[in-house]
């Protein structure tokens, strides 16, 4: 109740002071591991500062200049834009490190208004506050509505079919939840469970919560991360089960809720980056897990239009949500419509939930940094549309054809929902490309695919 009152007070304060200050757009950027959050933010900032590659941002000519400013929250680490851009644009480019904690950056845009009275007013400043946070943490918001018994039941069921899950279940079979708490036993179980989550994520599974087991940060080794799922029995006082249940509730209270209160609940616009190609390559179960995870993620949002009275009495709402399938440069452009259609179908449950609440949503295929060129090669069955790039593993150039994505998304989602072990009539591949060497003109940001279209959806109406 106190959290709700404080959010209401903050909302009223923000609403009443907004007309007296420069407008601010808070853009949340999230996605699960390897979806490309860091590269997206770096490329977006670079292309807003040097706008030669942004033709689909319709009012881009209204932006007179863009510049970085100190972020408003001194307690959040700054997104290290300069270091990430340096890695991507050096003579020997490399991918920057992935998102491991929350960070923020403010980009200020000086915009010339348009319309009948535009000649009477000077340029105005719009602040774009970009908040970067791990998607694994976002999945934890679903834990707030679960008891320890409910979470344990789901986690143990998933472990049966996921990598290293059997090792945890075998160890658990020798444990009596009502035995007296022993910290060595507790740590051994939590370490085994964390190893299982890491293996599941590496195998392409998306919902691997609790997220801080994967990205613990300064909580590594703390009691709040020393618990694991157990069978649902009545736990006695001082038992292992009673302590695990208490630590689970402490995790929700001291880790998950502060993240929601301090950061997530203040977002206006949101982009969710999704490695759809990686999930397809991992198989039907990974695709179904991704579909379920994204529906759960959207359940954590508070979507809706940011009308004055809505914000005043109900708090901030997410106005726009973009679902972006990344790594579109791994496909020839003739397959981009199929990738977008699969993304829309894959996220249908989540998207419908957001649309129903009043938020504007969209799905598209993008590449924040283009790493390949397109070619058509001769094949025994005729011409084949491929992409060519530098392989990350050995630095060699290679032409790549990932397989033909179906025009009907249900050809993928049907087997996924049925729990099939593998695709019956297709073999989908993925390749890891290194960033290409760049020679940029002063007016150009890094090359991309539809980053300008994504920016138009997310912030175009404000410029």
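^ structure tokens above, recovered residues below v
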């Amino acid at each position: 109740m106190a959290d709700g009152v404080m959010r209401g007070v903050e909302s009223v304060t923000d609403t009443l002071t907004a007309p007296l200050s420069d407008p601010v757009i808070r853009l949340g950027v999230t996605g699960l591991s390897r979806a490309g959050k860091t590269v997206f933010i770096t490329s977006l900032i670079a292309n807003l500062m040097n706008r030669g590659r942004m033709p689909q941002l319709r009012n881009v000519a209204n932006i007179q200049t863009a510049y970085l400013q100190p972020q408003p929250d001194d307690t959040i680490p700054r997104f290290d834009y300069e270091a990430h851009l340096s890695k991507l644009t050096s003579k020997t480019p490399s991918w920057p490190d992935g998102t491991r904690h929350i960070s923020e950056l403010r980009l200020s845009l000086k915009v010339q208004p348009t319309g009948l009275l535009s000649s009477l007013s000077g340029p105005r400043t719009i602040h774009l506050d970009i908040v970067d946070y791990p998607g694994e943490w976002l999945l934890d918001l679903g834990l707030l509505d679960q008891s320890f018994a409910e979470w344990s039941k789901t986690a143990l069921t998933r472990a049966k079919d996921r990598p290293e899950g059997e090792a945890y279940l075998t160890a658990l079979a020798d444990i009596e939840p009502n035995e007296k708490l022993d910290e060595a036993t507790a740590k051994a179980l939590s370490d085994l469970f964390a190893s299982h989550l890491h293996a599941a994520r590496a195998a392409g599974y998306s919902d691997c919560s609790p997220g801080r087991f994967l990205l613990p940060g300064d909580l590594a080794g703390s009691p709040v991360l020393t618990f694991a799922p157990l069978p649902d029995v009545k736990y006695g006082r001082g038992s292992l089960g009673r302590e695990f249940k208490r630590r689970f509730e402490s995790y929700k209270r001291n880790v998950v809720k502060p993240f929601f209160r301090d950061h997530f609940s203040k977002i206006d616009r949101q982009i969710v980056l999704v490695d759809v190609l990686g999930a397809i390559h991992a198989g039907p179960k990974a695709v179904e897990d991704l579909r379920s995870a994204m529906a759960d993620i959207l359940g954590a949002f508070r979507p809706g239009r940011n009308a004055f009275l809505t914000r005043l009495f109900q708090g901030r709402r997410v106005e726009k949500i973009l679902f972006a399938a990344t790594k579109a440069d791994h496909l020839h452009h003739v397959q981009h419509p199929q990738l977008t259609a699969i993304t829309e179908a894959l996220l249908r449950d989540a998207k419908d939930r957001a649309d129903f609440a009043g938020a504007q949503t969209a799905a598209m295929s993008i590449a924040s940094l283009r790493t390949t060129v397109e070619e058509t090669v001769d094949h025994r069955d005729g011409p084949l549309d491929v992409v060519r790039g530098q392989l990350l593993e050995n630095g060699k150039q290679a032409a790549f054809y990932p397989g033909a994505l179906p025009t009907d998304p249900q050809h993928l989602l049907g087997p996924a929902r049925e729990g099939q072990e593998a695709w019956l009539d297709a073999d989908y591949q993925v390749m890891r490309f290194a960033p290409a060497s760049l020679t940029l003109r002063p007016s150009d940001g890094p090359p991309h695919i539809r980053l300008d279209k994504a920016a138009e959806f997310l912030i175009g109406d404000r410029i």
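DSSP finds 15 helices and ten strands in the chain.
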